[in-house]
Amino acid sequence: MASNKKYWKSVEELKDSSIVETLSKNEFVQDISTDAFLGDKETLENSSTSRRDFLKYVGFTTAAASLAACEGPVIKSIPYVVKPDDIIAGVADWYATSMADGYDFANVLVKTREGRPIQIMPNKDANGTTSARVQASILSLYDEKLRLKEPTKAGEAISWTDVDKEIVAKLNTLKEANKPVVLLTGSMASPSTSKIVEEFSVVYPNVKHIIYDAVSESGAADAMLAMYGKRTLPNYHLQNAKTIVSFGADFLGDFHGGFEKAYVNGRKPETGNMSYHVQFESNMSLTGANSDKRIVVKPSEQVFALLNLYNAVTGLNISSKATAVDGDIKKLASELKKAGSKGVVLTGLNDKNAQLIAFAINKAIGSEIMDTVNTLNIRQGNDAEVAQFVADMKAGKIAGLISYNTDPVYTLSNSSDFSEGLKKLELSVALSTENNETVNASNYALPTPHFLESWGDTQFDSVTYGLVQPTIQPLFKTRQVQETLLTWSGNTTPYYDYLKAFATATILGGSSWNTALHNGFYSMGVAETNAVSGNLESVVSISEVGNQLSSSAKKATGFELNLYTKTGLGDGKQANNPWLQEFPDPITRASWDNYLTMSMADARDLGFTNPVKDNGAIDGDYAKLSVNGKEVIVPVLIQPGQAKGSVGLALGFGKTFGLKEEMQVGVNAYPLYKGGNNIQYNVTIDKVEGTHQFACTQVQKTIAGRHDILKVASLKDYNTVAPKDHDNGWNKPAYVSYDHKEVEAKTIDLWDEHNRELGHHFNLSIDLTSCTGCGACVVACHAENNVPVVGKNEVRVGRDMHWLRIDRYYSSQVETREDAKELGLGIADTYKALETEAENPEVTFQPMMCQHCNHAPCETVCPVAATTHSRQGQNHMAYNRCVGTRYCANNCPYRVRRFNWFNYANNNEFDFNMNNEYGKMVLNPDVVVRSRGVMEKCSMCIQMTQATILKAKKEGRPVDTDEFETACSSACTTGALVFGDVNNKEDKVTALAEDKRAYNVLDYLQTKPNVIYQVKVKNTNQA
Q1: For 669-712, how does the pLDDT look when each residue is reduced to its tens digit (9 = 90+)?
Q2: I need a surface site. Which of 63, 214, 337, 374 has the fewest CB within 10 A?
Q3: Where along the sequence do coiled-coil regions lie (predicted)?
């Protein structure tokens, strides 16, 4: 039961830490004097107040705070001279389009205001989903610092006409001499672009197209080619799975683009059945955190465990080695055989042989979950071809290079070889949206538009054909790569005309182009699935595959490194995006950094620590990491759940070229990414001098011993135990003592009730079972509500401004220290028990925002009535009335209010998107940019709810069922967040509010929130 678990956020909470105790009692950990409050940032950080000044300031405080709060920016507006016919001021337009930047692929809807894209949401009609990166990509459109603005040659501006003349002449010269030219691109997943590339290669037969993905999944594509005859990625219909076994495949993260929607659709406890998910991994991943059973193993042991599972399922005996988890393997083999076609095995090892073994297991059980017919096209990189190309270029065998959408100088592990070969080329052309090291090293730098300025098409899988359309006129002198290749091929057809003709003739089959463009996609139908037709034995001996796979793992010594991508930054393509840099990692809760994740046991043995300062800031020691002759100096972050003997390090950080100084954070891990292998053996780690300062929020908002914030039930209990049973119920209400009797807390109230049945009354339901912690809602809230970025230093001292946070809790079966004493555990045994839990804790994610309490404690303490409650259930903030006393934040038990310490807009100290004219284009005009000295927090997107009401009123109708939305509920891929009007009995949220899983956080306080949580259900006992 949830009440029997100890929940904690940081390993520091497992110790008797006076610092953590202090933080749990102190919301504002850094005192600030009045003179400093009224001064600038530099004054604030260095000021001190003498004791004899105290009385003087006491008389001045209220007036000064009021004065500061009333200061607001005056912005002059210039109206239209002639208003465009297709724009109505104050009314948003939505366009359907697709995103394909080489790493992230999504069918989306784009909100524009007065011709400016300001918000991205999933196109749910196209089964579209969005991640934090897809949500944040709209800010990259306005990146005036990094984006290329005009074509250049050797750093000097050149016209597009001269570009075409010179490059076509050079291409013809190289063709006549039959000198090899390489067109190097990332994965595009664009049928029309592939056809253009083919036609380009016909005109220039000496040109070879090579696809390079910075983060490789070439192993899976190679295995698919070997076993099924086509070089794509398999699809996985996890919504139909009964048993899921994953070996390091972070399929709720970036593995094959992610399967979070399908996964959650197969885990609905109200149906009576949930998939049983077991995760073998070394790093604590998003997928492992959501699993029913997480088994911690080093990467080399994952290899042997995978081979042993194959042996147990098939009865064969291919080469392997015994592991400590073989008992679990035998049980899983039985589960998989019982599940049969509803079972599936996945592996995240980027190794062809490992993928072949996983495919073979799926074939042996007749899995219909793995789909090899309707496959994925989003990772097409070929590691072997890239390696040969770099070797040839270094040897002087390549004469020309045209690169698009790649930055191999930054991402290749042997980038020095690439750079050396680049200097030998007769022609080097880089087509790119942003400036980077490869662009800088090339002779021609040709700017391409952002996907929101482009035409195009996509086909991420075999079923859905997506269309890309511009939502804004090009901001700079850019030209699409398709237009460029057509021009160089001698084809004068504009790309739009080419695309329309291609789609009409090849894809749409008589359907309307305009309809497809309006919808953003065209469904091509589903081919009959036949997932188990591959024949591994016809390709290579299964025993030979096993020998090759196990041979390298058997040679593993020392530490083992697992390279991975963070949910926020991915491959690093958007490293100059402040929304993503400040986005807290779902697992570690750290932002603005990458780091070496290490187990508590290894950290203790090697002398690494993460001391917590009295303001909640976390520090760390530096380590020298040596792999394959490469070394990096990286800070260490102790991570519960990390496999002993292994470490983890995120790719995508350490970029410096072209980035703002604030964004140049972390270390570049790509030099360690030898052969595109995410697992590197024989790693050595040495502690070096220095202390690193992390921007980590995991300790700053403690739960103050309230371990009933979360409620978790097993599927068996969910199905068999009454939820509100006084003794054993898994969703028991809070009880208090009243008149010497124990009664339900909700029956005792100090407040007068109000009639809430008139008009609308908004509730937000959050299903903890469906929430994977991905954080797309966090970035969506940033975009919709103009939430400022404050930078690493401010996050470090607890001044992050996120209106919505995703709390990550670890849980321990050992309860409080008092309970440990009752169990007869001494001090040493208690610490040992708690530390054992830290080796592999259970993880639960909980979105937390303003709870919009009907009996809100913030409202009673505000001396100027700046925070008030509406009949519709929203807790309002009148910014112009707020004087910044912060009483409301101190009285809020949920710690969801944020104080504006500074003006974050038009301030060089915070040189992010609100400090330049391009970045301001992303701001939502329906939401005010808050001034310094006021409180702010989640508004439950009041601008969206009011717009919905006004729209219905204008159209002379009632608001439709489920028409109300917020930014977070719209962005939620899994449907964990559902918003609506509980006074409309047909709205989904109405039934959810009355569901047996529904509960309020800290219900015994009787704040009566309008945010309802659904108890998390885990299939821990395979009910």
Answers
A1: 999 999 889 999 999 999 999 999 998 876 655 555 566 788 88
A2: 63
A3: none
Query: CA-to-CA distance for 989 and 985, rounded, in angstroms?
Result: 9
What's residue 61's pLDDT? Answer: 45
pLDDT at 550 over 70: yes
Mean pLDDT, range 122-135, rounded to an integer? 92
- Check if the beta carbon of residue 934 is closer than 8 Å to that of residue 69: yes
* Total Cβ atoms within 10 A of residue 713: 23
DSSP 462: S
- pLDDT band at residue 736 under the 50/70/90 scheme: confident
Give me 526's structure tokens: 């589903």
> What is the CATH class of 712-1018?
alpha beta
Distance CA 989, CA 1014 (A): 11
- Give the residue carrying structure tokens 């690193």: 692
Pairing of strands 273-274, 267-268: antiparallel
Q: For residue 64, what pLDDT band results from cuts at 50, 70 and 90?
A: very low
Q: What is the pLDDT of residues 169-187, one digit of tens each?
A: 999 999 999 999 999 999 9
CATH of 219-376, one of 1.10.10.10, 3.30.450.20, 3.40.228.10, 3.40.718.10: 3.40.228.10
Half-sphere exposure for 362 (CA within 13 Å, toward CB): 34
Please tell me the number of Cα atoms within 13 Å of 98 on its side-chain side. 30
pLDDT in tens, 213-268: 999 999 999 999 988 888 999 999 999 999 999 999 999 999 998 899 999 999 99
Helix, strand, or coil (residue 505): helix
CA–CA separation, 848 and 861 (whole Å): 22
Please give the model's pTM, rounded to 2 decimal places: 0.89
Using DSSP's 3-state secondary structure scheme, residue 2 falls into helix
Taking only the tens place, the pLDDT of each residue in 143-162 is 988 999 999 999 899 999 99
The residues, ordered by sequence, that sit 6+ positions from 581 with a Cβ below 8 Å of its Cβ are 568, 569, 575, 591, 592, 662, 663, 665, 789
Taking Cα atoms as reference points, which of 845, 786, 780 lies closest to residue 979? Answer: 780
Core vs surface per residue 62-99: b (16+ CB within 10 A) or e: eebbbebbeeeeeeeeeeeeeeeeeeeeeebeebbbbb
Q: Among the residues of 255-319, which ranges form H helices?
A: 260-265, 286-290, 299-314
Burial (CB < 10 A; 0-12, 13-18, 19+), residue 876, is: middle
The confidence band for 465, taking pLDDT boundaries of 50, 70 and 90, is: very high
Residue with tokens 């894809």: 507
Count CB-CB contacts under 10 A for residue 1021. Answer: 12
Contact between 434 and 146 (Cβ < 8 Å): yes
Which CATH class name applies to 152-216+381-465+479-492?
A: alpha beta
Q: Write the CA distances from 473 to 85, 105, 150, integer angstroms.
A: 16, 22, 15
Domain ranges of the chain: 11-66, 152-216+381-465+479-492, 219-376, 557-696, 712-1018
Mean pLDDT, the chain, whole residue set:
86
